[in-house]
Amino acid sequence: MEKRFANFLLLSALILFGSLWLQATLFPPKPADDEQAALLADADGDADADGGPAAVAEVSGADMSDADRDAQADANPADNGGADAAAPKPAVLPARVVTMGSLDPASPYRMLVTANTRGAVIDRIELNNPRYTDLDGDHGYLGELALKSENDGCRVGVVGNGTPAARATCTGDATQNGLRGPVYHRSESGEVTIAEEGDLITALNGRAASDPSTLRALLEEFRPGDEITLTVRRGSRELEFAVELGEIPLSLVSPERLTFGESRDHEQDATDPSSFLMGITRLGAKAASFDQDELNAAPSLRTGNWDVHVVRANTDADPAAMDVVEFSRVITVPAQADGDPPQQLKFIKRFKLATTADVENRSSEANAYHLEMEIEVENLSASAAKFAYSLDGPTGLPLEGWWYANKVHPRRFQAAGLRDVIWRDSHSAHTMITGPELVKLAKKGDTDSPEKRLVEPESDTLMRYVGVDAQYFACVMMSGATDDPDDKFGRVENYRLESALARAVGPIDLKIRKRTNVSFRLNSMNINLPAQETFRQRFAIYAGPKDPDVLEQYGLSDCIVYGWFGVVSKLLLRILHFFHDYVIFNYGLAIILLTVLVRGCLFPFGRKMARNAQKMQELAPEMKKINDKYKDDIEKRTEAQRELWAKHNYNPMGGCFLMFFQVPIFIGLYRALSVDIALRKAPLIPGIRWCSNLAGPDKFWYWRDWIPFHNVVDETGWLGPYLNILPLITVGLFVIHQKLFTPPATDDSQKMQQQMMSVMMVFMGVMFHKVAAGLCIYFIASSLWGLGERLLLPKSKPGEQRKESKSLLSSLMAATTSNGNEESLEDKRKRRKRAKGRN
Predict the structure, then answer these.
(1) Sign of the C-alpha dihedral computed for residues 769, 774, 776 and 779 taken in this order
(2) How far apart, in whole angstroms, are the C-alpha atoms of residue 831 and residue 839?
(3) Most buried among 475, 490, 712, 719, using CB within 10 Å?
(4) In this structure, how many other beta carbons lie within 10 angstroms of the beta carbon of residue 247?
(5) DSSP letter for each residue of 76-128
(6) Are 342 and 87 in contact (CB under 8 A)?
């Protein structure tokens, strides 16, 4: 026994020490952060075999932030990574804000694009079409100036072309017109410094503007068209500028700045990320984990400052020319062998802004609502490199009208969100991943970055387009990749993705989940780049309205969803636009004309339904007598009713049968008015703020501050923050129609039904209170037409019986009142009694 116990102990010890030895041999312990070298060597030599680098030169501790790590790498990369001390020191690059395009509608541009060297991102895309101004803000607009607090004033960081700030007039010195941003100087060594500071705004109409928030609060007191006076310090001079404020343009893309206490539970003034961020996900054998935005061991492309070069197009000489902003950033990669010089990868992100093809025709929107984005990676060294990267999509699409907006999902019986990810690849049709779906994933997974996979790993899927879709606008990234080896965008293999993810961006809105920001992320395949060669990808970024004519030119017609009866919706929209463009020039009146046309075409059906309803009213007294006579005999009561209906040629199902033909038209018209961008900001009465947006409620009176029940009249409440008149008129007409033409109840059951209908009318009024004004105009016009149809019908004389109709409906009714062998109703009753007696 003792011998067996000793053998057991010996065997256990051997197993223990053997397992420790195997673990130490196969899985060596990870060195501490302060002992980690910059080399990310591939232990089994796979990286060398593939031609990839062994490691990156810049290394930081795991506890360092991205900003600190980039500042350290920019200051002295040799000290950070142990790379060759003779490696060139990169120039110090300040954060800069630059612009492309113009806000002037008369320019050959359709947008003003603001870009930032911090991450080489697009901060903002503002459309300059006067139809596409902001819905929610009604105060005057000076321009997005990238303001910073400094010396009791607001330092201007950039002034975009065509903004009111750029048109500011200096009183007393015309040579100083226009506010100005900083002027930069680049030395021979590549170092960039500020040669001249931007203007410092110190006061507005004599009132101090000590910081950007104060200046914004002052501007909110003025309306578009108002003229203000700005006191500005330019160098050593103090100047005054007269500025005529403009309307707030629509920011199609912008990082959402959120104020503490609005609705999201996070820190004050937190900002969601900007658009089109790029990050390194693999270098050599080292890859980022699934929960990382980029590789921690590499200098950050997402938060580091990139170098920038701006090329302004001479549009007068060449209408097809583009503004170009080129960002570049060099990443140092260590040598694969001792004694070799360090490798370098140069990442380039280039944006080109399109112009209208015909400068003389400013109304042409062909090929104008897009940017071209080029991604280049140059291997500047003498050895091959292996890497992968991620590219994020646009963020911060407009949430205008979020408390009443309603979108249509491409799939039936599914609800769309306010901002959804849309996708199409080489193997599938247009697909939508909704914002609420991504929020549900976030709640289920308890994570701030929920993701839904669009492309499976190692698939042969080619991306056609992927974007973010809002109510009336979309920002879509198109690859143009095809199976053609001569693909003009570059090699087809470049557009195969390791993965594509739809994801929520920034904090989840816990109170109003449908307002959560969404975007997508594209992860490239592993790229083996030979020495002195360049990897390229090119994308077209559509950033514009969901106008059918414009989307068709970009192959994005599927972005507009009309629902079940799309053919009917498109036909009715063409008629509506014809009325507006050539007949009435007002969309409110055009909707009325369209309603009259539709109801006029359906007049035979409507008249038939009206006569059927009138006949039901006339027969109501006889129906009541039958119910009283056969109160306890359902069979006799039913047979008597059939005899009465047959005698007066009345079909109780006739109204429902005729309504079946009208449903496609009514639903198609409803959908057409719901998605038509032409109704956005279209006024019912020009010059009056009431009902100035037919795509939203008429907003007669802002009653939120006057009603104590904020949970009812809040944006998230049943009624909304405005008292709307048109829905009340709509429901009032429904009530009048019900009271005038509903036949009197013949029994307690019908009486209960009519009482329930009255309650439903109140409920319908609540549901209709946030319906778009254009739809209310349609319902009002249609209800008035229906009332006219009923009131103008001639009434039947007492005792007069109408001749039988030989229509199909009458034939069907006759068939239901006979049993095929012309047996009378009285004979049928006698036969049934005899059968009961025998039983």
Answers:
(1) negative
(2) 13
(3) 475
(4) 17
(5) -HHHHH---TTSPPPPP----EEEEE-S-TTSS-SEEEEEETBTTEEEEEEE-
(6) yes
Digit-coded pLDDT (tens) for 14-66 = 544 454 444 444 334 433 333 322 222 332 333 333 333 333 322 222 233 33
Task: Mention every residue, 6+ apart, whose C-beta is less than 8 A from residue 499.
Answer: 453, 454, 455, 456, 457, 522, 523
Q: Using an 8 Å Cβ cutoff, are 117 and 327 in contact?
A: yes
Q: How far is CA 351 from the centre of its chain?
A: 22
Q: Which residue has the tokens 């015309």?
A: 174
Residue 479 has which token pair? 């690859």
Cα 425 → chain centroid: 20
Strand pairing report for 518-524 and 451-455: unpaired
pTM: 0.78
Long-range contacts of 100-103 (CB under 8 A, 24+ apart): 100/310, 100/323, 100/324, 100/325, 100/351, 100/353, 101/128, 101/160, 101/161, 101/323, 101/353, 102/128, 102/160, 102/161, 102/162, 103/128, 103/143, 103/160, 103/161, 103/162, 103/163, 103/246, 103/249
Q: Which of 306, 399, 380 lies closest to 350, judged by CA?
A: 306
**Contact, 170 vs 241, CB < 8 A?**
yes
- Identify which of 463, 462, 437 has the alpha carbon closest to the alpha carbon of residue 451: 437
What pLDDT is recorded for position 826? Answer: 54
How far apart are alpha carbons 392 and 456 in whole angstroms?
17
Q: What is the distance between the alpha carbons of residues 641 and 627, in angstroms, rounded to a whole number?
A: 9
Query: The tokens 């279209």 sit on which residue?
Result: 682
Strand partners, 286: 283
- Pair 449, 504: CB distance under 8 Å: yes
Helix, strand and coil content of the chain, in percent to the nearest 5, comes to 30, 25, 45
pLDDT tens digits, 492-532 = 456 778 888 998 887 777 777 778 889 999 988 888 888 88
